[in-house]
Amino acid sequence: MSKPSVYVIYYSTYGHVKTLAHKIVEGLKNTDLVNVEVRQFPETLSEEILTKMHAPAKDADIPSVTLQDLESADAIMFGFPTRYGNAPAQVKAFWDSTGKLWSSGALQGKMAGIFFSTASQGGGQETTALTFLPNLVHHGMIYVPLGYASTHLFDLSEVVGGSPYGAGTVANGDGSRQPSAKELEVAITQGERFAKVVAQYLSK
Ligand SMILES: Cc1cc2nc3c(=O)[nH]c(=O)nc-3n(C[C@H](O)[C@H](O)[C@H](O)COP(=O)(O)O)c2cc1C
Domain count of the chain? Predict the structure, then answer.
């Protein structure tokens, strides 16, 4: 039997979620249980606006996600930075184009995980995932939370992003804080755990 395909699909304005996405991929690949594809949500902002936001260029080697990708995936890990505690418009704009997949039930039963970034500790390390769940639920997708799979989630000795909803980082208001070693380890753990759950589920 061929390995299940896990797609890691992310949006990142300033690179924090992109860094987490690399670690999620590392975790998925560590298990050797799944094949991994990486995609980006398409940008909706103009170059002029992105320049004014001091946003770096996107990774040219990571293709934009398509509806066909969602159909091809056996399971999907979504990553995005918070916008007022919710997913960004870039993610919602793409998701709002999935009506045909919804009506055909194409995503029914596919497993999904979520990881994220916020500027501040209380800025959405739980709500950013929680408020995305209706998008999964309406498609009949199966949310796989991280739970407390990493002991770093109990660590109060320093700032550690992430929550039982998924891996996360805390970027600071000016984006100056980069994902810490512990946050990167949590992302690897989430990738590993997600691969194991997906492989276990799909082999039955
Ligand atoms: C319009 C807008 C709204 C935002 N809302 C929040 C918020 O509610 N809470 C928060 O902590 N950060 C908020 N941020 C900060 C982003 O989440 C932060 O820039 C992001 O996590 C960095 O990730 P990235 O480098 O992958 O883009 C907001 C940023 C923008 C541009």
Answer: 1
2, 64 in Cβ contact below 8 A? no
Return the residue whose CA atom lies nearest to atom 4 of ligand 1: 83
Q: Is the CB of 123 under 6 A from ligand 1?
A: yes
Among 127, 168, 162, 144, which Cα is nearest to 75's? Answer: 144
pLDDT tens digits along 128-186: 999 999 999 999 999 999 999 999 999 999 999 999 999 999 999 999 999 999 999 99
pLDDT digits 0-9 by tens, 80-126 = 999 999 999 999 999 999 999 999 999 999 999 999 999 999 999 99
CATH of the domain at 21: 3.40.50.360
CB 111 within 8 A of CB 141: yes
Q: The domain containing residue 28 runs over which residues?
A: 5-202
